[in-house]
Each structure stands twice: as structure tokens, then as C-alpha cells.
Amino acid sequence: MVTDDELESIGVFPYETYSNSLDLKDILIGNGFSINLCNRLRYNSLCDLFSNSASAEILAMFKEFNTTNFEVLLEGLSNAQIVNKVLNNQQPVLSKLKEELKNGLISTIQATHPRASEINDHLLRSLAFELSEFDDIYTTNYDVFLYKIILANNSLVERSLEDFEEFADGFYEDHSTGKLAFDDFDYKPRNLIYLHGALFFFDPNGVTVKLTRLDDGVEYIKLIKQYLDNDEFPVYVAEGNSDSKLEAINNNYYLRMAYSRFKNRDGNLATYGFSFSKSDKHIIGAINMSTTKNIIASIYPKSTLIETQKEMSRISNLFPNIAVSFFNYASLFNFKDPVKYYI
């Protein structure tokens, strides 16, 4: 691994170098953030994990539909059931495959996502402190961590331990027990915005709702399963190419509003744990359409300086009209030794 001095020689500085001289308005957070909190989130896709135990029929369907989206397969199976009902052609295998899909998604979420006992409240409060300098937090993650962190932020404010501005997320309207419906991002100056949705968002009857009973990891899974049993899938953008992701975004009101806000943002942008891969083309395009002035991007040093420089050049070339600078990923968030302790 290259040293800090070597990194500085090629323009990779500690985060403080930029935070002390630039007004870093918003931050874009990718999966690298969540991996630091739960190593089980180090996966290529939920579909890839599920495929290790899926039946040959389900694998063939993923291939024929050319998708990694569970919901596309569920819709296909549901439509097939309707057709068979009209034709009076009973196909029990369709119900069996639907159950396999639902149970597969639930078991995959259970296998990768943290339970309540694994969430370190002390660390969440510390991360809330470190995120306090930003206005909007945008993320392509769909786990519960950032939601828990903004709750920790708001708790510190409510207890008069800090004078942060509280975070909101656009969900204000009471929908039913344990659920809030999405309204708008503009009621509060700071928001957590899920660009790819979240595993605790659902869209029954065209209204995107957020599950709020997330204190118990087991209950969280039970709530999701209740929706799946009614053929409702979480509002999250499944893995796949950028065009498919953008199509999914345009098909949901919450996701459209989130993407529009990101596309129309201004000021400087920090990024952390975000790879800027080909499948992120729609995110890259949104940044280029915005009036972002500077991007301050985290970079995970490669094994050599040359490899690190190549990665820096690759990312910089994606933004021809925006100045891109880089900071060492280890210099922003302190995951191992939290910076501040709260009783």
C-alpha cells in the first residue's frame, strides 16, 4: 500500500485540506460507506447472492428476461398466472416459483443486512457528528444505516447535546400504523435522499411509504415479508445497467423527485465510497447536468501509485466541466475510533 506522503505527491490529500478551504454543500455516499459498518454488505448484488441457491428455473428466468430485478420476475409470474386462470390452465409451478423469489429476497436481506444488536449507537452518533457539516445527503445505498444516522443526529438536537440542523427525508404524512407517506423534500433545509430507493420503502397504490418500525431487525424483516406476500416489492433500484436503473427511477414518483433534486443541485459536492462505474452513468450524467462547481471525491488507494493515478484520471475524465479533487477515503469518517462520545 502506498504511503500518505506518496499519495500527496500525486494530489490525494487528507479530507481536511478541502473542508478548511471549500464550502462542501452536499455529499454523495456509495456502498463503500455501508461496508465499513457491516462487512456483509460487501456484495456485487442481491441477485448474485440469491443465485447461489436459486433453482434452475429461476436462473433461466433471470437469463431470459435479461434482468437482475426480482420484481420483473415476480410481475412476469403474476401475469402468467392471470393468463392461465383465463385459459383455465392450472400451473401450480408458478405459485411455487413466486414463493421461491419472495423467500429468496427475504433470506438474502437477512443474510447481508445488520440486525439491531449489531448496530453500534455510539458509532452512529459519532457519524452523525461527522456528517453535520453537509446539507443534503444523497445515497445509492438502500440499507438502514444512513436512516439510523439521521435519527441519531436529530436525537442529539432534541436532547440539546448539539445544535445541528435536523435532517428530514421527505416522509411526513401519516399513512397507516408504522408508515409515513412521501410528501416533499422542500419542507426542511437538510434531507437524506435515497437515489435508488430503500429496502424499507414500498409503493402500495402508487403512494411511496416508509416503514418506521425498524428498531428490531427481526420485525424489519417481518414487515418486508408482509408486503412481499401481497406481491409488493420494496422501492429500490435493482442492480443492472444504467439505462435500466434510470427507467426504474422514472417509474416511481419518489425516485423521480430524488433524481430531479440531485440533477438540479448546485455548489460543491463531496463523494464517499462511490465507484463511478458504468452502471452509475445516470448518476454521473445528473452531476454533469447540475451546476456543481467542484467534486471532492474519496479514493481508495490502489497497490501502486500508477494504478491510483489511473483511477483518478478515469474519474476526472467523467466530468469535463467540473473540477475534481481527491482525498484519502480514510480521512473523512472514523469507523474504528469514534470521534465523539455521547451518553
Characterise the protein shown here.
By secondary structure, this protein is an alpha/beta fold. It is built from 14 helices and 11 strands. Helices cover 44% and strands 15% of the residues. α6 runs antiparallel to α7, α7 packs antiparallel against α10 and α12 crosses α13. It is globular and about 70 Å long.
Number of strands: 11
Poorly predicted residue ranges: none
Mean pLDDT: 85
Question: So how many helices?
Answer: 14
Number of domains: 2
Percent of residues in helical segments? 40-55%
Q: What is the radius of gyration?
A: 21 Å
**Estimated structural class:** alpha/beta
Q: Mind summarizing the main beta sheet?
A: 7 strands, parallel
Report the principal-axis shape.
Answer: globular
The proportion of strand residues reads 5-15%
Order of helices and strands: HEHEHHHHHHEHEEEEEHHHEHEHE
Query: Reading side by side through the largest sheet, how are the strands ordered?
Result: 1-11-10-9-2-3-6
Distance between the termini: 37 Å
Key traits:
single chain; 343 residues; alpha/beta; 2 domains; seven-stranded parallel beta sheet; four-stranded antiparallel beta sheet; 14 helices; 11 strands; globular
Summarize the structure.
With 343 residues, the chain is an alpha/beta fold.
Give a topology summary.
Blueprint (H helix, E strand, L loop, with lengths): L3 H6 L2 E2 L1 H5 L4 E6 L1 H7 L8 H6 L4 H10 L4 H17 L5 H21 L8 H10 L6 E3 L5 H14 L12 E6 L2 E4 L9 E3 L6 E2 L6 E3 L5 H13 L12 H9 L2 H11 L2 E7 L8 H9 L1 E9 L5 H13 L5 E6 L15
Parallel strand pairs: 1-11, 2-3, 2-9, 3-6, 9-10, 10-11
Antiparallel strand pairs: 4-5, 5-8, 7-8
Helix pairs in contact: 6-7, 7-10, 8-9, 12-13
